[in-house]
Amino acid sequence: MKITAVILAAGQGTRMKSDLPKVLHPVCGVPMIEYALRAAWEASTEIPVVIIGHGAELVREFLGETACCVVQDPQLGTGHAVQQAESTLRGKTDLVLVTYADMPLLRPETLKRLVETQKSNKGPLTMLTVSAADPRGFGRVVRGLDGSVQAIVEEASATEEQLSTHELNVGAYCFTAAWLWDALHKIKVSSKGEYFLTDTVALAVQAGLTVQALASDDLVETIGINTRVHLAEAEAAMRQRINRAHMLRGVTIVDPASTYIEPGVRIGRDTVVRPNTHLRGETVIGKDCVIGPNTISEDTTVGDACEILASVMEEAVVEDHVTIGPFAHLRKGAHLCKGVHMGNFGEVKDSTLGPGTKMGHFSYIGNATIANNVNIGAGTVTCNYDGVHKNLTEIGEDVFIGSDTMLVAPVKVGARSRTGAGAVVTKDVEPDTLVVGVPARLIKKLNEANDDRTD
Ligand code: UD1
Ligand code: CA
User: Is this prediction's pTM over 0.90?
Assistant: First the structure.
């Protein structure tokens, strides 16, 4: 059986008072339409159709190949919006699942239940309802004396008695396609000049057909976003849902209310996430780590047993047993190998720090390859930019870089060499050599026997 989702995303979203189309406003870092799209994909069998209109080009660009976009212009209501899919879908699908793009918390499981209910319904449609004390301006479900669904009335046109009903129309429906297209043409224009999709319910009832209502038991799922107040509510609810899922998989979240994890993030067991931590994008954190407090990670991969205190990481890779912070900044292309220690006020960009290398205090490392067990003294700077090019610095294994060394790139420091405090290294340094001064010059050759380095 072919099931196709139609997602309505053409409305103006006037109440958001925004230049950005409503459906592109992010919830936990992801545009809200993405949630509607993912849920629709899971509950259907064909590529979803998204009805776009307001800000059509931006929305189309965001969706790319993940949906089939159809433009609704002008936007004459939700019934008119679904009608736009007719020429694309007529004769090509058995069921049509309709959802609104402004309901990011609606779960795929719920949509699947909606589809399953309609599969066994003799009538042409099943709708999702919820009972709530606060009607939030939703359409009301009108039932007959026998309890059967009779109609949906919008708040603006509801009677006193209808307004007192607490059963609300969530805004998700599953239709038999063969019935839907003709029914849409029969919808009468409302006093607002719109064609309401919700009128299909009364049309079915008038034709003597059964409308099924699937009652949702989860109020949170039905949070729709019309204003920025709703946006913040949805954000909080989504955050709670994401955090809860991590906790149930074995992650300790000390204070879920102040922990901000985006949906694409993965975290290993027995990792502890401390307050005011933001894990964004495709961040992956291993097992047994302590992250935060006050850490921001974007698209960064962290191995097992790492400690990252009050630091910022962007597009970086951190291997196992690494300690970072407080106040470290890993930028794009930073790669910290196993056992690296990066202390306070350091910045690493487009550089690899080899296994066991230590960089304790106030250093900038950019465009550098640093081998294993290197000691980078306080205040070390790779002078990687000459005003035109980014130049490379290479440091061999077991090198000791003295405090306040300037490495004027391009430059290489050979294995086991040392630089004196305040050295300005402008030329390559051979292995096993001590250089000091400005510009740095060779003082003596070093070897294993007279190795007198100290930390
Ligand atoms: C709608 C329902 C209401 C339900 C509520 C739940 C109708 C008539 N009313 O009201 O019963 O309780 O959702 O949230 O359906 N859209 C288009 N083209 C249009 C108009 C709207 O694509 O011409 C899209 C919007 O972008 C939005 C969705 O349809 O994603 C819903 O429209 P909206 O104006 O938000 O409807 P509500 O007033 O919330
Ligand atoms: Ca809405």
Answer: yes
